[in-house]
Amino acid sequence: MSVLLLLVLVAVVTAVVLARRPGTYADPAPEAFAAAPAPVRPGGGFRVLAGCAGAAAALLYVWGALCVGFAVMEAEDGGTGSAPLRPCRTGVSPELSGRVIDYDASLLPLGFRCETADGDGYDSADVPGYVNPGVAVLALTAVAGAVAAGYTTDLRARAATREGGR
Fold this sequence. Notes:
The chain has four helices and three strands; from the N terminus they run αααβββα. The protein is mainly alpha-helical. The N and C termini lie far apart (58 Å).
């Protein structure tokens, strides 16, 4: 739930940053000390989108890696109530969790898989199902934003070259 709130916060901040235009906010400096406005860079909005999506992808990946790490720590914790493995108990029937003999944790893609005695297995509910698709979509959005920013910068540079050559 907290990850969804974090994603909503990132989306709102991104929308505010992308909607901001030069001169939108009041200038706190007096006119004598005011600096010249920064030139508008082509593809700036796409750069912001790429940066925000990349940061969100990194945060979501870290969240998933923490979930995997905590599941491994719980699985390795021995003592009373450690059989069957604690991460393998959530979301499945007691009969299925009773057949678990081992586990497999992976960081790419993020997952914690409980392996049963018959060679089959199932994914633990300790790692949320939205993590891998979310990381993939955000990473692809970041790459697409970076490519679009480069493309718009290239188009603007070509147009300036054509105008300067005439």
